[in-house]
């Protein structure tokens, strides 16, 4: 899974990238607008506890790739220019994090001359809508011509969906606001449309603005948020500094500044929710591992994430939920009280299940 971090110049997107990936980018490198990416381990206290119990040779966290998407340039007028290079890079991301600046800094002026959350959000949305409109208009025209020649049934099924999307965009609404089925999303994925991607809005405050966050959150709830748009709050400058400290010292700073959750934890939690993701575990003396799957996947599909042979030769899954295992204290006890069970291929995996796959 790849998540792109985007934002207007001087909004703090590179600061967020460095904070969550615990990397340090030279200011000169940032100024060049280069492309940066990093794979991070997803923190999971459940995996930590399972590792402490089984003491395996290896612990493997789930992972997410974050990309600091470069290519957005400052035009002659001072406003941002959405280059073809920038838009093409954004298209490859599974979800987007848009960093919105809400802090004042006279030394680093906002490219639009003032702080305005809704204007900055709408700037991106408008450009993404224009990009999607151009793509769909071209595709719809081609499909209509092909249908006249071939009467292709697949194209006939595809056309109404694309026309519905086009009409939505003409109303200046992003495609993520539509209630699309899994099959419709699968079809649209081939087009890499920008406004269909789940969006996480990251509001960047400075450490003195703690009491102002609720005001902006309320404004967003009324105007922008839906099932495919979420929001987090972070304090870019101070959190970047804290990311370079040992965990205990960082916790002291968080308490001092009233920061309840780190940018990394809140971003991952909301990203998982946006993308409909969850984790299950495999445990043993060799390895304790967290696996990321989509909600609604069955036991056979989850087994296939471990190895394709497990999907093809699936027989049964031994399943116990993490909380039941911790309460019982062992697999034997969990089996004795009825929390350990055998499940077939159609069993829908829950977040936190511990699974052992039986296969031929």
Task: Considering the chains and any ligands shown, give keywords for the structure.
Ubiquitin-like (UB roll); alpha/beta; flat; about 350 residues; 2 domains; 14 strands; 15 helices
Descriptive report:
With 360 residues, the protein is an alpha/beta fold. Helices cover 44% and strands 22% of the residues. The protein folds into 2 domains: 273 residues, P-loop containing nucleotide triphosphate hydrolases (Rossmann fold, 3-Layer(aba) Sandwich); 64 residues, Ubiquitin-like (UB roll) (Roll), CATH 3.10.20.30. The protein is built from 15 helices and 14 strands. Strands 2-4-1-7-8-9 form a 6-stranded mixed β-sheet, with helices on both faces. The longest helix is centred in the middle third of the chain and has 34 residues. The mean pLDDT is 90.
Tell the overall outline: flat
Q: What is the strand tally?
A: 14
Average of the residue pLDDT scores: 90
Indicate the structural class: alpha/beta
Oligomer: single chain
Strand order in the largest sheet:
2-4-1-7-8-9
Which fold name is given in CATH as the topology of the largest domain?
A: Rossmann fold
- How much helical structure, as a percent, in the residues? 40-55%
Number of helices: 15
The CATH homologous superfamily of the largest domain: P-loop containing nucleotide triphosphate hydrolases
Major sheet description: 6 strands, mixed
How many domain regions? 2
Calculate the terminal CA-CA distance, rounded to whole Å.
Answer: 30 Å
